[in-house]
Amino acid sequence: MSELTISVSDPKSEGSLSDGHITYRVNSTSTSFLPKFANESTVVRRYNDFCWLSEVLSLTVSGCIIPSLPPKQASGRFGSDFVHARRKALEKFLQKIANHKELIKSEYFQHFLEANDNELKDIIRASQSLKPNVLNGLTDAIKSKWNSLGSLGSSTKNTISSTEYDNDSNAIAVDEILEYIINIENIISKLLDTTTILTDRSRKASHSFRDISSNFESYGVSEGDELGTMLYNVGNKFDDMANTTGIHASSQIEMLVEPLSEYLRTLASVKNAIVQRSNKRQIYVQELINLETLNMSYTKLLGQPGKDVQAQTKQKNIDILIIKINNIKTEFEQMTVRLLKDFQEFQLQKSLSMENIINSFVDLQMQYHQDSAISWDQVTSIINDGEEKGNGNGNGNDNMTNSTSNAEHVNAKVEDEEEEYTSI
Questions:
Q1: Does the predicted model carry a pTM greater than 0.90?
Q2: Contacts for 362-371 with beta carbons within 8 Å, 24 or more apart?
Q3: Residues 6+ positions from 91 with CB-CB distance below 8 Å
Q4: Over the stretch 327-380, which tens digit does the pLDDT of each residue have?
Q5: What does each C-alpha distance from 310 to 293, 301, 411, 421 come to in angstroms?
Q6: Which terminus of the chain is less hemmed in, N or C, by CB atoms within 10 Å?
Q7: Contact by Cβ (8 Å): 270, 65
Q8: Which SS3 state, helix, strand or coil, does residue 322 take?
């Protein structure tokens, strides 16, 4: 059990539909083993605050695979289904951070959970200085084959210690991770596209069953005898199947589409961690170049009359740069350790996650087909019962009564559906 339990609840719409947003109540409860956190805390946060937390963790705990956030959505973001799904995803995002041994230590995570609105605004404003001047995207050049970085040039490399330049013992391991991620990402994307098509097909089937239901009921009302009753009851059963298929489509989204989408976002987080490592390595190499340039200038000044003060200044600059380079190197090594450790954990969790997704999908399909088989059997029973009654003598008054009752039911149902459509 986690030492920090977090829940996200009570989504509320703020502002207009055009420029409004949804706020969420974030509740956190910590144990005595986490003295830096309040025992209990409740704050109100909006989606952009979650985005800020994700970004600031990526910048301050570099190398970690940051848990994925649900994506932004311009349209439909106030719909009940969307808000419900986002709330669950945001809660999962925070709980994963709480379960991460390094991310939970972040002061920004604590601020997110405990700071009031004004305090958080000030913290967010101050954190803008953490952003690098240039954010490099993921390209083919990010693969950590540092000895072939074209931007440095072969002549420049010769002025740097080859031991310092090539000393990236984990380069091959990171390359393999990147190649694996790119390959898996392509496969999961195709799988997600296929499951989305499957879900859309279920939705369309639900709408089709609803149309068939309405038509059969109307047909039954028009007949108004034993045949009419049978047709009307068949229409009712198709309405049940429409509901079952609609629920099935929603379950497919929750148990299959959303987990695969989250998996893709996690792969993107892995790539982002690799990008950060790549950028840090480039900064490190560039500072080595700067150090070599300073050393060359310092060497030229030595022994020249009247250049002692300039030489001393160069030496101070060299000493300062060496400290900076060592700090960068330490940060780079920490990022590498975090990346490799988190990716190993990702691999362990991946197997369990995929097993759950597949098992849920199989169970879902089996249950749906079982329910569908029962519904089709009931349709057959309705038809057979209608045939048996048709073989006997019908009562005209009863038929008229059935016809009137069915018509009233259909009209009431149409009015309900129109009212529901208008409210939507």
A1: no
A2: 364/248, 364/251, 364/252, 364/255, 364/256, 368/244, 368/245, 368/248, 371/244
A3: 6, 7, 8
A4: 999 999 999 999 999 999 999 888 888 899 999 999 999 999 999 999 999 999
A5: 15, 7, 96, 81
A6: N
A7: yes
A8: helix
Cβ–Cβ under 8 Å, residues 228 and 216: no
Q: How far is CA 118 from CA 11, 115, 311, in A?
A: 20, 8, 51
How do residues 276-316 score in pLDDT, each as one tens digit?
999 999 999 999 999 999 999 999 998 888 888 999 999 99
d(CA 60, CA 113): 17
Amino acid identity of residue 186, one-letter, is N
Contacts of 149 (CB under 8 A, 6+ apart): 141, 282, 285
3-state secondary structure of 346: helix
Tens digits of residue pLDDT in 3-12 = 899 999 999 9
Please give the single-letter amino acid code of residue 368.
Y
Query: Which tokens go with 335?
Result: 């990022």
Q: Do residues 361 and 256 touch, judged by C-beta distance below 8 A?
A: yes
